[in-house]
Design brief:
The protein is 34% helix and 24% strand. By secondary structure, the chain is α+β, with helices and mostly antiparallel strands. Helix 2 packs parallel to helix 3, helix 4 packs across helix 5 and helix 5 packs across helix 8.
């Protein structure tokens, strides 16, 4: 491949325009005109072949799709509207033009339903695997954004959707050797559940609309996206808000497919829910007096939310109530680089 010919081809096929985009791809930097006072939210993710994805179990298009969703989920957690994306690649030898176009197709397939426009990026050669860096820009009204630091003692803790599906899907894609069968395993997994879980991993959904709803209606006091796992991401809210937390394991929203998978492997479904990252659900807190309004509005919008716990004083720590009523510290089982 010739680099600049590739850039021109990608620009022709994937770049777009908006009324506020003064200059997109073609100069040293993009130019955006902000017509009204607003806050800009900027997030970036670096994804590495062999760490974040493996082409043995995923196509270039699905890798691109998931990469975009990771960034969209960050913007969703802020209650922001995603606007512009920049994509940079370090491409290894043997990764073809068709592969690159597949990657961009997946990326833009995730972005375009939210009105996101590609405005730039960079390309480089790689002597190892593929590296993808995505920078996403979004906006909120000035002074109005969801942060991790707003949780108050007594607030209820909620999550959107279901937890643990993506981790179950990843383990299925990696094959039986990824998790050896336990002696407690009882039955094979139905094909329909296998399909649901693998799709939840390969085609996750960032909760962009839910984040904007929580922000615009002033319903949440804090929020974070579940990209690394509940056991770790809940701690981020507690640390930033200087509080403790208690969740009820019996209330964790776990899909029928995930429960069936756990049974087929002799695993605890609650462990999958605590550990699994990349579900890209939202974890948020809200005052108890808003619970009725939250559920009423969620039902109207067809959003799935679940009350899973309560914010406690900082000295309480981060704990979980087991199904037998006993309380224990939540072990950190979520993903963390360098650990």
């Amino acid at each position: 491949m010739e680099e600049f010919a590739l850039i021109r081809a990608l620009t022709r096929r994937f770049a777009g325009t908006t009324p506020h985009l003064v200059r997109g791809i073609g100069d040293d930097a993009a130019v955006i005109s902000a017509a009204t006072p607003m806050w800009w939210h900027v997030t970036t993710d670096l994804l590495t072949e062999g760490v974040h994805f493996d082409f043995k179990s995923a196509s270039p298009e699905s890798v691109g799709y998931r990469a975009a969703m990771a960034n969209l989920s960050d913007i969703a957690a802020m209650g922001a509207v995603p606007r512009y994306v920049l994509i940079s690649l370090a491409v290894p030898k043997g990764f073809t033009r068709k592969n690159i176009f597949g990657l961009y197709t997946g990326l833009l397939k995730a972005c375009r339903p939210h009105g996101v426009t590609l405005i730039g990026g960079d390309t480089s050669a790689s002597h190892t695997g593929l590296f993808i860096n995505i920078t996403l820009l979004g906006t909120t009204t000035s002074g109005q954004a969801l942060l991790r630091r707003g949780a108050k003692i007594g607030d209820h803790i909620y999550v959107t959707g279901t937890l643990g599906d993506s981790l179950a899907g990843l383990q299925l894609l990696m094959g039986p050797e990824s998790k050896g069968r336990s002696r407690r395993a009882t039955s094979p997994l139905r094909t329909v559940y296998r399909r649901v879980l693998t799709q939840r991993h390969l085609r996750p959904t960032a909760r962009v609309k839910e984040g904007q709803w929580l922000n615009h209606k002033g319903l949440a006091t804090s929020a974070i996206d579940l990209s690394d796992g509940l056991s770790g991401d809940l701690r981020h809210i507690c640390r930033e808000s200087r509080v403790g937390a208690e969740i009820d394991l019996s209330k964790l929203p776990i899909s029928i497919a995930c429960r069936a998978y756990a049974e087929s492997r002799g695993l605890l479904p609650t462990q999958l829910a605590l550990t699994g990252g990349e579900d890209y659900e939202l974890l948020f807190t809200a005052p108890p007096e808003k619970q009725s309004d939250l559920f009423k509005q969620a039902k109207t919008h067809r959003f799935h939310i679940t009350h899973i716990g309560t914010i406690r004083p900082r000295r309480f720590g981060v704990r979980m109530k087991d199904t037998d009523g006993t309380s224990h510290p939540i072990p950190i089982t979520s993903y963390e680089h360098f650990r």
